[in-house]
Amino acid sequence: MVVVTQRIPFQPKLKVERMKDFFSTLISSLWSSTREATIQLKKSLILIPGMLVLLGVYLLVTFVAGRLGGVLGGFVVGLVQLLCLTLFYQWILEARSPRGLRLQDMKEFRPELFFALLSVAFPLFLIQLAMGVAFAPGEFASNGGASPVPFALALQLFIQLLIVILLNPAIEVLLLSQTQGVDAMARSMRFVIENWIEWLIPFIALMAPALLFATGLRGLLISAPEAFVIAIVGLFSATDVLLPITPVVKWWLVSLGASLSPAGNLLGMLWLIPALVLGAWFQLFRLHYYQSLEGSSRRSRIFRAKQGG
Question: Least C-beta-crowded within 10 Å: which of 15, 28, 175, 281?
């Protein structure tokens, strides 16, 4: 008995079609989120002066708490940061309403949102504390315990980067679902694992020009590529999970020569307003974009896009 096997021919056209469908759906989601975020921000421009006030309060408290020092100063800064974040995200949610953000909305305070943020902030604090102990200079040191060896430093940065990436949409999970604490962190991780390509593309697209404008990083890329990689990893690993728009705002300011320090030049400080506008827009964009991706697979999104077309 002769068994005839039939070889399945290579189908490059099928792969090309799948790629076209993927990018078509991706561009459609990005454009829809961009449009919605722009409309919402236009209706809620009062958000920008509010952000300026929150930033001013936070910087002032940081300066005063620095004089206190120790555990008390750190506690005060952490508490004020959570209060400012609560107000900011409360305003962001109001900006997404059909009427937009109004002055009377900015006078309210939602304790439930504060405790939702705290439910993620506390586990993050414990993780950072554990990493601080694990990677203490005395544990991974050379030259008599003076400084960490490069491998330990790189390992610490990459672990922090992994945490930042996996928990990047944790804020969206908190704001758009009833999930809190460790459950919100786990949901954020699942979301990133399933949608990492789609989720990271807008962030990279916004950060790339700012990084190219940063002359220090350009110099490292030419003179010391390894140091450039460590610098990039360090930049992104320092992202505050509870305020993921920070790198976008900070590095656009840095690339434009701005400074948030009291000694910063006035011209540089003038760039703060457009940077905050970009940050507010990006947070509104992230919320809409997260909604478009959450609860659906890549294949189902492509199918819906075809049916809609």
Answer: 15
